[in-house]
């Protein structure tokens, strides 16, 4: 104990004499105070603190839905829905109009095609009628001629309706009417003659 | 002053997040802010190998986290953390004393260490070679800038003892460095 006290007293006595020199102070001040720690140490420590329940794993980001945000999101949904609906309707109407115009074009085309086919068939039938051996006086040929003329007359009539100013169609119709009247008159005379004959008989 | 205040507030915010939510990111931010200083302090006090120093840093942070709720903000967080680090180092040194006593007995005269060591002895190495008690006082006084009164309170020893330990530490370092340069 005495030794300790004497040592201590000796230290205190010398302490005043043992101040650091300016160079020593400067050297001590220059010593770096920081040291870079390793990432491994940080991760290890975080793992330990998690195990002890002190830290929780990073939370997933949760969007805080306040009342205003809810309203804004709902409004945006409604606007989006309406826009989609209107856009759909507009697209649908455009497509319908387009489809109708295509169908209309198709009808016109099919009518023209039908006319073409019918005309060809009509002409072919006339050719065949003319080619028959009894085409001049035969009973069947007469019937065929009447049908052909009747069809031609009806066709001319329709053409006149379609194109009222068509001269050719008008003249044809007039000629056919005249021919028809003459044939009716002839038929009337024939009937009268036959009736006379009957009378005669 | 303003910067200090901002730092204190930020530390408060981080600590609050750690305590309330166990916020890992807040802890990492706090760790990254204060660990370089803590590591430098501990490695100088401990004079051990790098893995040993890291173990002390780890233990310091664990103790700090365990007592975080009791921190009263009478000092800065950094000062509080270094205080915990100092205690951990001292406990570690006490535990390891019986293993190191053989080595200390073999080289009770510090000059022997210099003779044995052929490499250049610089100031940092000289500090590391000091006996534990002397080194701690020297680091706290001459590097960290604490007064004898503050050191005495931290270490729970009389002021006279801190003065004498500082005196011895300075004398040993001067002797080693002078001899080496001669």
A few lines on this structure:
The complex is a heterodimer of chains A (201) and B (182). Chain A is an all-alpha fold and 201 residues long. Chain A is 79% helix and 0% strand.
Explain this structure to me?
Chain A contains six helices and no strands. With 201 residues, chain A is mainly α. The longest helix of chain A has 65 residues, at 67-131. The N and C termini of chain A lie far apart (187 Å). Mean pLDDT of chain A is 76; it is low at 1-7 and 193-201. With 182 residues, chain B is mainly alpha-helical. Chain B has two domains: 1-98, RNA polymerase sigma factor, region 2, helix turn helix motif (Rna Polymerase Sigma Factor, Chain: A), CATH 1.10.1740; 107-182, Orthogonal Bundle (Arc Repressor Mutant, subunit A). Chain B contains nine helices and no strands. The longest helix of chain B is centred in the middle third of the chain and has 30 residues, at 77-106. Chains A and B meet through helix 1, helix 2 and helix 3 of A and helix 2, helix 3 and helix 9 of B.
Write the layout of secondary structure elements.
The complex is a heterodimer of chains A (201) and B (182).
Chain A: H1 2-15, H2 22-30, H3 39-51, H4 67-131, H5 139-162, H6 167-200
Helix pairs in contact in A: 4-5, 5-6
Chain B: H1 2-21, H2 24-46, H3 50-66, H4 77-106, H5 110-116, H6 123-129, H7 132-143, H8 148-155, H9 159-181
Oligomeric assembly: heterodimer
* Helix content estimate of chain B: over 70%
Global geometry of chain B: elongated
Strand content of chain A: under 5%
State mean pLDDT of chain B (0 to 100 scale). 81
State the distance separating the first and last CA atoms of chain B: 46 Å
Order of helices and strands of chain B: HHHHHHHHH
**CATH fold annotation of the largest domain in chain B:** Rna Polymerase Sigma Factor, Chain: A
H/E order of the elements of chain A? HHHHHH
Biggest interface, CB < 8 A:
A-B, 36 and 39 residues
Which architecture name of the largest domain in chain B does CATH use?
Orthogonal Bundle
The total domain count of chain B is 2
As a percent range, the share of strand residues of chain B is under 5%
Distance between the termini of chain A: 187 Å
For the largest beta-sheet of chain A, the strand count, sense and barrel status come to: none
The CATH class designation of the largest domain in chain B is Mainly Alpha
Secondary-structure class of chain A: mainly alpha
């Amino acid at each position: 104990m005495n030794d300790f006290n004497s040592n201590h007293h000796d230290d205190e006595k010398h302490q005043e004499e043992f101040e650091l020199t300016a160079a020593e102070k400067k050297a001590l001040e220059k010593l770096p105070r920081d040291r870079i720690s390793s990432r491994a140490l940080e991760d290890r420590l975080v793992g330990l603190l998690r195990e002890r329940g002190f830290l929780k794993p990073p939370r997933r980001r949760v969007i805080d839905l306040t009342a205003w945000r809810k309203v804004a999101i709902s409004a945006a949904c409604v606007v989006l829905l309406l826009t989609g609906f209107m856009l759909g309707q507009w697209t649908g109407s455009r497509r319908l109009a387009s489809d109708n115009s295509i169908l209309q074009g198709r009808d016109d085309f099919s009518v023209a095609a039908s006319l073409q086919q019918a005309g060809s068939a009509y002409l072919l039938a006339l050719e065949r009628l003319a080619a028959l051996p009894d085409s001049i006086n035969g009973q069947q040929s007469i019937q065929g001629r009447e049908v052909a003329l009747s069809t031609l007359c009806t066709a001319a009539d329709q053409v006149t309706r379609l194109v009222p100013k068509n001269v050719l169609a008008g003249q044809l119709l007039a000629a056919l009417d005249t021919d028809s009247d003459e044939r009716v008159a002839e038929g009337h005379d024939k009937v009268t003659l036959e009736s006379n004959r009957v009378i005669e008989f | 002053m303003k910067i200090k205040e901002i730092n204190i507030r930020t530390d408060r915010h981080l600590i609050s997040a750690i305590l309330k939510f166990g916020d890992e990111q807040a802890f990492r931010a706090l760790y990254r802010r204060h660990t370089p200083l803590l590591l430098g302090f501990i490695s100088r006090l401990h004079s051990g190998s790098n893995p040993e120093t890291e173990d002390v840093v780890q233990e310091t942070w664990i103790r700090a986290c365990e007592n975080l709720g009791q921190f009263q903000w009478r000092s800065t967080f950094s000062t509080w953390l270094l205080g915990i680090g100092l205690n951990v180092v001292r406990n570690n040194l006490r535990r390891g004393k019986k293993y190191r006593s053989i080595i200390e007995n073999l080289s009770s005269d510090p000059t022997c260490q210099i003779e044995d060591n052929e490499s250049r002895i610089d100031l940092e190495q000289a500090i590391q070679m000091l006996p534990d008690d002397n080194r701690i006082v020297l680091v706290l006084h001459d590097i960290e800038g604490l007064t004898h009164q503050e050191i005495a309170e931290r270490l729970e020893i009389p002021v006279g003892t801190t003065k004498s330990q500082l005196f011895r530490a300075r004398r040993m370092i001067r002797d080693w460095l002078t001899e080496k340069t001669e």
